[in-house]
Design a protein that fits this description.
The chain starts with 30 loop residues before the first strand and ends with a helix. 30% of the residues lie in helices and 17% in strands. It has a twelve-stranded mixed sheet with strand order 7-8-9-6-5-4-3-2-1-10-11-12. The protein contains ten helices and twelve strands. Bound molecules: S-adenosylmethionine. The site of S-adenosylmethionine has 20 residues, from strand 3, strand 5 and helix 10.
Length: 346
C-alpha cells in the first residue's frame, strides 16, 4: 500500500521529521509571525519614539532566501499559518515575491498580513496574487487629527484608501481593523471606530495597550480594558459573546442588531497564554516564543555559520520546549522585553 504520509514524515530528504513543535506545557506551535523589516513609516506613540530611528543594519536583516529556508523548516516541523508583519511590512522591497515563495512551501495553509495600511492600496493586488488572503489594518482613530496625533503622521486618507482597496481585491477573503485600546484616548474614539467598521462591514478588534513601547513608559493604568470598552460599546449597540476559537487572541462579540462583530484582544486584563500557538521570527532572524520573552534563539547566526537543517531544527525545537508559560505583566518586578513591538513583529 502507498505510504500516504508526506515526504518529510517519511524522513526524506533529511531526518527532520514532522515532529510537532510542542512546549513544556503541551501547547503546539502552528502560527508564525514573520517580521520582514523593523522599519516603519509611522511613529505610533505607544510603539516608537519620534526621534530619528536607528534601524537594523541591512546585513543583519534576513534576505529572502534565508527567510524562506527558516519558514520551510518551521513548516516541516508543523507551522501551518504565517502572518507577515513588521515594522511596516509593506516598506520591504519586493514583498510580493517573498510571499509567493512562502505560499509555495509545503504545509503552509494560510498567509495573512498585518499592516498600517498606508501603502496598502499600491500593493494589495500583487500580494493577493502572491498568496495573502487575510489583511489586518491597524487604525486607532477615524478622525484625521487624532490619527495624526497618535501616529505622528497625517496619513489617515491613505489608510482608508488601503482598507477600501483590500476589500475590493479578489483573493482577499477577510479584512479586519485593529485599534489599540489606551486610557484617555480610546474612550473617545471607540464609538466612531465601531460605527465605521459596522458601516464598512469590517470586524474591528481592540487590543489592550501592552508594555512594548520603545521608551518603556507603559503603566498598568494606560490600559483601557476590554471590559470597559465592552461597556462603552454595549450601551450604544448591545453585544453578545461568541464562543472563543481555540488559540485565538480575540474574544469576539456579535451585535444584537445583526450589525456584525467586534473583537477584544485583552492581552493584559484577560491573558490567553494557556493555548498560545504562536512563534515569532524577527527581521534579524531571532526566534521568539513569547512576545514578552527576554531570551531569543539566534537562527540567523546558526544559518550563516553553515548549520544544516537538523542543527537548525534542534535549535527551534529546543526553543519551543523552553517556551515560558505566559507574560508576567502582573507580577511584582515585571520587566518588559528590550525590544519594542515594532522590532519584535506584532
Ligand atoms: N506596522 C504594522 C501595523 O501597524 O499593523 C505591523 C506591525 S505593528 C507593531 C503590529 C500591531 O502591533 C499594530 O496593530 C500595532 O497597533 C500594535 N502595537 C504596537 N505597539 C503596541 C503596544 N505597545 N501595545 C499593543 N499593541 C501594539
Amino acid at each position: 500500500m502507498a505510504d500516504a504520509r508526506t515526504p518529510a514524515a517519511r524522513g526524506t530528504p533529511s531526518a527532520v521529521a514532522a515532529a510537532p513543535l510542542v512546549d513544556g506545557y503541551g501547547r503546539v506551535a502552528r502560527d508564525l509571525r514573520v517580521s520582514v523589516t523593523d522599519v516603519c513609516n509611522l511613529r505610533c506613540r505607544y510603539c516608537l519614539p519620534d526621534e530619528a530611528m536607528a534601524w537594523l543594519p541591512r546585513n543583519v536583516r534576513l534576505d529572502d532566501d534565508e527567510l524562506v529556508r527558516i519558514v520551510s523548516l518551521l513548516a516541516r516541523l508543523g507551522v501551518r499559518t504565517v502572518r507577515i508583519t513588521g515594522g511596516e511590512p509593506l516598506v520591504r522591497p519586493k514583498l510580493a515575491g517573498l510571499v509567493e515563495r512562502i505560499a509555495a512551501i509545503a504545509g503552509i495553509e494560510e498567509i495573512s498580513l498585518t499592516t498600517n495600511g498606508v501603502l496598502l492600496a499600491r500593493h494589495v493586488a500583487a500580494l493577493a496574487e502572491a498568496g495573502v488572503s487575510r489583511v489586518n489594518v491597524s487604525m486607532d482613530s477615524v478622525d484625521p487629527q487624532r490619527f495624526a496625533e497618535l501616529t505622528r503622521r497625517d496619513l489617515l486618507p491613505k489608510v482608508l484608501e488601503g482598507i477600501a482597496a483590500a476589500q475590493a481585491t479578489p483573493g482577499i477573503d477577510q479584512v479586519k481593523i485593529n485599534a489599540v485600546a489606551m486610557r484617555g484616548v480610546t474612550e473617545h474614539e471607540a464609538i466612531d471606530l465601531v460605527a465605521f467598521a459596522r458601516a464598512q462591514d469590517l470586524q474591528l478588534r481592540f487590543i489592550e495597550v501592552m508594555p512594548l513601547d520603545a521608551g518603556h513608559r507603559w503603566q498598568p493604568t494606560d490600559v483601557l480594558t476590554a471590559d470597559e470598552l465592552r461597556a462603552i460599546i454595549g450601551r450604544r449597540w448591545p453585544i453578545a459573546p461568541l464562543e472563543r476559537a481555540p488559540s485565538s487572541t480575540a474574544t469576539v462579540f456579535r451585535f444584537a442588531d445583526g450589525g456584525g462583530e467586534v473583537g477584544f484582544i485583552a492581552s493584559v486584563s484577560e491573558p490567553f497564554c494557556a493555548d498560545c500557538d504562536r512563534l515569532r521570527l524577527t527581521a534579524d532572524g531571532q526566534l521568539r516564543t513569547c512576545l514578552f520573552a527576554h531570551g531569543e534563539t539566534d537562527l540567523r547566526s546558526a544559518l550563516r555559520d553553515g548549520a544544516d537543517d537538523e542543527g537548525l531544527a534542534a535549535l527551534i525545537t529546543g526553543a519551543v520546549a523552553d517556551k515560558q508559560w505566559g507574560h508576567e505583566i502582573h507580577r511584582p518586578g515585571f520587566r518588559p522585553p528590550a525590544r519594542s513591538m515594532s522590532s519584535i513583529g506584532g
